[in-house]
Amino acid sequence: MQRVQRVAKIDAPPTVQIKKAYPNLDAIFGHVFSKLIGEPITPNKIAIFYLVRILFQTHFGFRHQRTTYPQFTVEEKSEIFQWLYSLITSNDDLTYDSFRMIIRTAFHSNRDIFLNFISAMEHIGSGESGVNFGIEDEFYTHKYAKDPTGERMTDDSEGDLKFSSQYSFVYRWLKRVLAQYSKTTSQELFEINQMMRNWINKASDDDVENLKPESISTRLGTVLPREIDSSLRARQWVARNIHFMHKNPRRADPHDHILNYVKLIQKFQSDVYEAHLLESIVHVQKKDVESAIKAMKIFFIDSMFQLNENMKHLYKTHRLAVPSKIPLMYAPILEARICRWFGNFTTARSLLIESVQQAQLSGDEICHQMGNTELHTLDIIGCGPILEDRTAQNLNSEKNQVSEDQNDRRIHRKTLKHIDDLHGHVRCGPCCAQTVDDFELVAELDSYGMMLMLMKSIVEGHYRLKYSRNAETGMACSLGVDQQERGRKVSDYGFALMSSNMIRNGLFRQAKTTTSEMLSGNLEAKNKGEEDVFHTESFAVTSANLAYSYAATGHYPEALATIQKMKTQFPEHLTWQSARHTTICDSVIRFEISFMMNKFRECHSLINPLAKYSQLEFTLRKALLLSASGRDREAILMLKNLEIEDVHGQIRRHLQLASCYTAQNSFEKAQTELDKALELSDGTTFKHIRTMIGRRWATMMMHRGSHTLALEQIIELPESIEQFGSFIERCCFYLTAARCCRMTGHDSRPWLTKLRVMNLRKVWPTMEKMVLSEIAALHVDNGLMPDKKKLGQVIRMYEEVECDYPGKCHWLLL
């Protein structure tokens, strides 16, 4: 019976094995790693390979025979690796005689390395042996020949430098050479041998360029530029351009040149994923949003494909790669930043929410912190280049989205205002766990988070000027060596924000000192040219603030010279984010100059660029022009219809309305507007607002005829005017004080003297006429100081100014 059962089992059909079907990722992504391109094979590369193999055999022995030479010490290894690195990274192909002289200089008679190398080369040159890229198994297995005592030869001593290490540049270079060699055909092997024999037997430098036949290339007959002819150099070229695109776009290659090289890299070296990232950056600078997002998506799709580290799974499935979840977390952040730059806030918010949720599920604190930082940036800054309170405006543009997200605890789980150092966090992002770069990134994000909260308090008018508290403001980020220049970028942002807040509070002289110091520290190094110079957006903001400080102190030629320098340093076609600040600064300062010259037609063309950056700045200047042109009702209506959430902007609107009403002799309405401005200023920390309100109230009372009341106000303002007043503000104050003093029987010459020394003839000629009128009023027959001779001189000076600059002075509108 048992025999029958055995026979039945033998005759039974084989069991059907059902295999689980899932997509072949290698096929989906185009067999990226199977098509990996290695190091281009040249005579120099072959000679370096033979030298490395001889060094390896000298140190460990040949096959299973122990070496007869003493092993290299750590110092000797360090010197050897330096020689190898110099040879590998050399941009020029050497002749055999030159290469031989270098090897003789490097090793001489040390352990017969030079003699063994010459012997191997001469065998190839004479045709006795062919090029052999074989290398001992011990190079990969780390199991070397035993010495007579039975101990295994290793290089695992503490602090030693290892030949076969994943961190070794030489080891990775060898793997690329072997990867390229493994793809060569029999015909190509023959050509390699012929090329090597010609190189050894020819010593002329002119023949070196002709020793690399195109048929050896695995790139479909395409000979790539040397900068990108291997994965190593392609990655270096991409990394260099990405670095300079952020630091100094003038040092990067031209955009068309970059895009051409990127297309070659994507076609022939598909393992260099970073090329898509560089392409996205270039498209952002070209303002091609769709292409930028498309390239960014391809970058993260390709980076999802990683080598399969599970060898058991690899043997069973024959699949070289597995997907990674990291792009699911980090891809939405960069895509959201692109959307934010171009004003698509709804899409940006959705992407950031997705990133934060993925980070929370994975426990990635850095990704979570990045997402929250970008969310706060979206709410506080948006895409505007001007420091205004845009929170409500940005949120109102996406009401439906916000109503769903405000109740999501995961979005607001960590408030940036209370971020502390992260201790014991588990990393699963792009950086290795517990690396220096990891914690530098955490410190950088902490600083950015605190600066965002600082910026929010500045635009809300609640921040007090205490910049020495770096731990609370985030304006300093001490990172030691700081190879990634993270701390430098943080401090640059801090200086730019500090100077902007000084301008916002009327501290023009302090802003001038701060910006000058920052820009003077960004000079070109003597030996490196522009390599160490930063031309980032923070320096564009700082340069603009320097121009504002010059203009606010009456030095308009210096301000225009600064703007002209900005146009050279931050051109529109290279960095439009920085060029925005140049455009705004140029429009604001030139408008101010043209308005004082009564060139109103020119003013209209100057304020047009402001419309797309700030409706507030455009409307205030447009209303000023309308009032100066006699269209007061239209100007007032425009100001009243302007929707403003920024408290500083609301105060400026009330002050402008008060000036318009003063010029119309509507003093009660002007008083109402000043009271509203004063009420808003009570809840803020702005230092110069009360001074501006007080000066306008005094001017209004002077124009109303209440000179005594105006003079009482004027007596309280000189110190604050000198500290916080701009050039125009001080001119208007001095003229108001001079007229009030004259009308109340007091000596007005001290105020007129201050006006005369401000060189108004070249800057504000119509104000010069007002000053001459006040001087003439002193010297008339019924004046305080009658003098016909001086009166005649003043009249002649007035006529000269009137002849060159006719028109009325609209100082009551300012």
UniProtKB/TrEMBL annotation:
Transmembrane segments: none annotated. InterPro entries: Apc5, TPR-like_helical_dom_sf. SUPFAM superfamilies: TPR-like. GO terms for biological process: anaphase-promoting complex-dependent catabolic process; cell division; positive regulation of mitotic metaphase/anaphase transition; protein K11-linked ubiquitination. Keywords: Cell cycle, Cell division, Mitosis, Ubl conjugation pathway. GO terms for cellular component: anaphase-promoting complex. PANTHER family: ANAPHASE-PROMOTING COMPLEX SUBUNIT 5 (PTHR12830:SF9). This is Cyclosome subunit 5. It comes from Caenorhabditis brenneri.
